[in-house]
């Protein structure tokens, strides 16, 4: 019995981690900054490739993963400076620009690195409960997802930078008038967003096949989570992930992956229909 | 009036005569080979060797004088794994470029998207993958292995060695569904039990729930017919969760070279039946591998798709030269004699007149903990007999249909 219970928790934790890690970066870039970043998946891919490249050079996995996230963050800030900055007032154009970027990056990776890269293998470690065996690394992923949520909360709710950043996103002109360097705030926020995308790729790199289009497997889930999370990103993304993870886990377990995927997307449609402002609108209203 | 027409016809005849002589004297125009292979997108890692195999064969044939003295012009388009693009590019090659032969397609979905378009023309079409079998279509010549060569060998061997309970993980499209149907039929004949079947949408990469479903069902072995880079993540995740079950497949190792792409021991205890895998160690195979790697030094693995794509051009050459024509109907007359054979790196392979599928020398291979490949059993040459047995006979009737164990030709 306890094995069954743990199995349910494990499956929930697994889907939850996938949703949070793939959505966290987008929650900032799309949810807060309003940039429809179609290249989100490519920042994830960047994190994965840098991780594998560094591990093959002999760097220990955890350090490689941190460096990969930083690399994605720095590339993100460069992209923000060169491209995204010009589109803050034109969200639909930013969609086109970042989509173009995404196509250029995947094709260039295919031409430069090739169509498949040899994986590095998941860190050893599995444990058995009842008749089931579990991979320890999947629980590490869950831990990382919780840590990412906590980190975001602290950065954006408890620090001076967070207050200024939120003020900038709400009313850039007013924030600027009060002395905030909004250009830098945008740049750093975008960098944090892409660094989190890179972290997602870095964390999942050992468990997946690396191909240039791998980001695509994350993109739908990440957009869906952010969208139903709603306007208040920090309060919305976590409950959105909990909610979607429960639905998907239950359907996966009883009816298989196809129904799990259909059911999750169906739930998303329902929520957007009933709560156009997303889940956070309910939570914030209750909070007041 | 009458004499005028006569003079006109005589003039026309004279002109045609000189035109024909002129064409014979000038260099023959090249034979156009249309090739549709994915070299970008989710299946690029499999499609790249197919393009390379075709390029190698074209280069070799052109160097040794071409086909009937005509050089080959290879026109490759990249449909990027998109079935709509397969149709668009297929029409372009057939109708605008007027290719003499069409080759290609990776997934069975792309093949079925192309086939109705090819059927409206008189152009021959070569499908170069192993697949779920059953296509009875006079326009199509299949170069890869089919279930009676792959499943009818592999599944009884797995049942005998590991046990009667199997769990199936299959990609959710026609290839996975029909392959799973084959497995059900063969397992039933053997008195075995399918304890679970899971169909996975293409692009899914997370398998924690699947792994637990498998452990709950307690199978003796797994049939893994998952497709594409995303779904291949199953192997890494199953190894990390210490699932540790024997696995069998009709597409792993020789086709997807997972043992080269994943860190050992993720593919340990995988079994497959194949007509080609790079580890084949015969003089003909080694010579072929040497030529390939000389032209493409960075190739990670010469997979069976690439190998079959290479053979397809030599088979086309053999058919055209025996028929002394590039017309499909003339080529099919050669096939009908049962004498459409080539000496391939695996050995001699021939096209079966009834089904237009290819005979293959099949070997059962297994992967060890260090991802070393060993040959467990050599079945010799196996004919693609199933379609002929159920009543497909392309020498008599063109069905243009795909049959499965549950969809057989109606008895007329």
UniProtKB/TrEMBL annotation, chain A:
Any one GO biological process: amino acid transport
Gene Ontology CC, one term: plasma membrane
Major location (coarse): membrane
Membrane topology note: Multi-pass membrane protein
Protein name: Branched-chain amino acid transport system permease protein
Membrane keyword on record: yes
Similarity comment text for this entry: Belongs to the binding-protein-dependent transport system permease family. LivHM subfamily.
Subcellular location: Cell membrane
Entry keyword set: Amino-acid transport, Cell membrane, Membrane, Transmembrane, Transmembrane helix, Transport
GO molecular function per UniProt: transmembrane transporter activity
Protein transport as UniProt keyword: no
Pfam families xrefs: BPD_transp_2
Organism of derivation: Bradyrhizobium elkanii
Top-level taxon in the UniProt lineage: Bacteria
Bilayer-spanning residue ranges: 15-36, 43-59, 65-84, 96-117, 137-156, 185-204, 224-246, 258-276
């Amino acid at each position: 019995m306890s094995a069954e219970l743990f199995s349910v928790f494990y499956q929930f934790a697994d889907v939850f981690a996938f949703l949070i890690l793939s959505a966290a970066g987008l929650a900032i870039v799309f949810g807060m900054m309003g940039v429809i970043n179609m290249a989100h998946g490519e920042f994830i891919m960047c994190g994965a490739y840098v991780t594998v490249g560094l591990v093959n050079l002999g760097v220990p996995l955890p350090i490689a993963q941190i460096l990969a996230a930083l690399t994605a963050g720095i590339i993100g800030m460069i992209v923000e400076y060169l491209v995204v900055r010009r589109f803050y007032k034109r969200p639909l154009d930013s969609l086109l620009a970042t989509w173009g970027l995404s196509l250029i990056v995947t094709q260039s990776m295919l031409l430069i690195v090739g169509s498949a890269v040899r994986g590095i293998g998941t860190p050893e470690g599995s444990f058995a409960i009842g008749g089931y065996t579990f991979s320890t690394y999947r629980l590490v992923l869950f831990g990382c997802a919780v840590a990412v949520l906590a980190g975001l909360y602290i950065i954006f709710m408890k620090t001076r930078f967070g207050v200024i950043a939120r003020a900038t996103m709400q009313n850039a002109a007013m924030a600027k008038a009060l002395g905030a360097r909004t250009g830098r705030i945008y740049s750093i926020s975008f960098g944090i967003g892409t660094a989190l995308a890179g972290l997602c790729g870095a964390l999942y790199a050992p468990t997946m096949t690396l191909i240039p289009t791998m980001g695509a497997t994350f993109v739908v889930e990440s957009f869906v989570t952010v969208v139903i999370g709603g306007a208040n990103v920090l309060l919305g993304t976590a409950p959105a992930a909990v909610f979607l993870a429960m639905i998907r886990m239950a359907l996966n377990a009883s009816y298989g992956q196809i129904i799990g995927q259909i059911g999750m997307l169906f739930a998303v449609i329902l929520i957007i229909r009933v709560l156009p402002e997303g889940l956070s609108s309910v939570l914030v209203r209750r909070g007041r | 009036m009458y004499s005028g027409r006569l003079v006109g016809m005589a003039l026309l005849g004279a002109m045609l005569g000189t035109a024909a002589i002129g064409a014979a004297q000038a260099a023959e125009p090249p034979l156009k080979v249309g090739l549709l292979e994915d070299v970008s997108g989710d299946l690029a890692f499999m499609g790249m060797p197919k393009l390379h195999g075709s390029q190698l064969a074209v280069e070799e044939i052109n160097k040794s004088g071409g086909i009937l003295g005509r050089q080959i012009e290879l026109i490759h388009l990249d449909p990027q794994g998109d079935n709509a693009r397969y149709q668009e590019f297929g029409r372009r090659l057939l109708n605008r470029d007027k290719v003499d032969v069409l080759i290609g397609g990776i997934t069975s979905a792309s093949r079925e998207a192309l086939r109705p378009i090819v059927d409206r023309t008189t152009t021959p079409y070569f499908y170069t993958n192993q697949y779920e079998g059953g296509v009875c279509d006079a326009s199509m010549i299949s170069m890869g292995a089919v279930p009676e060569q792959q499943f009818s060998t592999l599944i009884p061997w797995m049942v005998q060695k590991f046990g009667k309970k199997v769990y199936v993980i299959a990609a959710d499209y026609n290839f996975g569904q029909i392959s799973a149907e084959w497995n059900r039929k063969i397992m039933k004949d053997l008195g075995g039990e399918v304890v679970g079947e899971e169909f996975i949408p293409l692009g899914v990469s997370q398998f924690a729930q699947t792994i637990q479903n498998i452990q709950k069902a307690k199978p003796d072995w797994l049939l893994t017919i998952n497709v594409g880079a995303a779904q291949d993540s199953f192997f890494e995740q199953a190894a990390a969760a210490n699932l540790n079950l024997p696995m069998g497949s009709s597409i792993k190792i020789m086709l997807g070279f997972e043992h080269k792409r994943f860190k050992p021991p993720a593919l340990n205890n995988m079994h497959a039946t194949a007509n080609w895998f790079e580890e084949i160690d015969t003089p003909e195979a080694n010579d072929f591998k040497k030529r390939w790697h000389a032209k493409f030094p960075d190739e990670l693995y010469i997979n069976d798709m690439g190998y079959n794509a290479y053979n397809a051009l030599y088979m086309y050459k053999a058919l055209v030269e025996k028929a002394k024509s590039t017309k499909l109907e003339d080529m099919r007359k050669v096939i009908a004699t049962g004498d459409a054979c080539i000496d391939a790196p695996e050995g001699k392979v021939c096209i079966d007149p009834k089904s237009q599928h290819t005979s293959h020398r099949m070997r059962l291979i297994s992967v060890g903990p260090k991802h070393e490949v060993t040959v467990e059993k050599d079945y010799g040459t196996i004919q693609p007999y199933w379609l002929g047995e159920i009543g497909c006979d392309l020498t008599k009737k063109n069905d243009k249909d795909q049959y499965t164990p549950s969809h057989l030709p109606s008895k007329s």
